[in-house]
Every structure is written in C-alpha cells, then in structure tokens.
Amino acid sequence: RARGYSTLFMTSGYDPDEEKACVSRMLSMNAAGIILCSVLPDLTYYDKFSGTATPIIAVSNRIHPGIPYAGIDDYRAMYDAARHIIDRGWEKIYYISPVLSKEGQNIDAQSERARGFRDAVAGTDIRWEMIDSKEAFSAFSPDTGCRSALLCSSDAYTQQCIVRFRREIDSGKLGLMGFDNVASLRLLYPELASVAYDTCRIGVEAVKLMLDGGGQSLIPYEIIGGNTI
Fold first, then answer.
1. DSSP E strand stretches across the chain
2. Which superfamily is assigned to 74-197 in CATH?
3. Which of 37, 41, 51, 69 shows a CA-CA span of 20 to 30 A to 106?
4. Where does 16-71+198-220 sit in CATH, by number?
5. Average pLDDT over every residue of 80-108
6. Global pTM?
C-alpha cells in the first residue's frame, strides 16, 4: 500500500483446480504480481508464466527454481528441531505429520520438513516413528514407558496433541515440540517448545521480490526451548 498498490485476496481451499481459476482471474485483471501458496502437484504448470508482465512469487510451498520464493528453510528448521530433542536425551521421537499421505497436492514445505527430520535422526541411536496419515494419527498411542517426545510438523497437529495428551505432557511423561509458534497456541501454552519465524516478514519479503525482483528470500527461524522438551 505504501508503494501505491492495493491487495486482493483469493483462496483456493487447497483445491488445485480452484487455484488455477484464481490465478486466471488475477491475470485477467492485469495484476501487478501474484503471491502464491501453491498446492498444484504439477510443478511445471507455472512455467508458461515465466517472464510475463505478472511475476509469481511462491510462499510456503516452493514451486520450482524458476519461481522466486519467500519463506524459511524448512529442511534446516526441522533438522535443527529434531537435533534439539536428540541433544536433550529423549529416547524416542514420534514425528507427527498426517499431511504426508495427501496425494494430488504440492506439499513441498512438509516434504522438506520430513526430509530434515529423517536426516537428523539418521546415524543416531534414537528410536523414531513417523505418524504420516490421518488414520495412523487417530489410532496413535505414544509409548510413555520410555522418554518419548512428539515432534509436530505444524501447529495444527500440536494443538491436537495438546488436547489428546496434555496430562502426559504436563506430568513430563511425554515431550512435545511444535512448529510455527502460532500466537494463539503460545497464549494457551506459553511453555511450549517450538520453531518460530516471522510470518509477517515473509509477506514483506514476498512483496519485495514481486516488485523489485530476485530469486529467493530466506527468513530466519528460531528454536524456542520451552519447558516441554
């Protein structure tokens, strides 16, 4: 707005076809640029827009190297989160990420976080298990007979874990680490360990890339120690 632009928001509801329709409508309105959290599984779809008068900037999910990106290094952030748990002597990690079973969508950010987790535990003695579907999460019951911790790939899952396992978490029988450091969750559970980053800054950097050009802008993240790990 400070640079003379207005903002139009469109939501796809995580529907690839609706995403295409939203982008088409913006292009028909001669939008100066599009900031896009894409769920399209076809990562080549936006190739045809490369070099057009309407630049496209990816946030959250990378599209491909030709599309500028603003966000965090999801791989490194989750790698560091897992190492934070390992370094504190936990014996088992449950990686909570039901979205990984979702087909027909671009889940690049979640895939990168999962890759970071796998690389962090590789070559260590820690036991681990991936809860990577809605069905597995619904049936999930963590082992509290050893020092087990839950590592959530998104605070959407962190909140559900708090609801289901708060007694075990509060008693210290179960560790918990979130990802996103969502403000509303922080108010409810201030001692929660998490990965924090500035979502507002992602928006600012995306606008800069859209108006000024550039390949990518990585936003710093921070490991919040908390008392739950």
1. 34-36, 56-59, 69-71, 92-96, 127-131, 148-152, 174-177, 194-197, 216-218, 221-224
2. Response regulator (3.40.50.2300)
3. 51
4. 3.40.50.2300
5. 96
6. 0.93
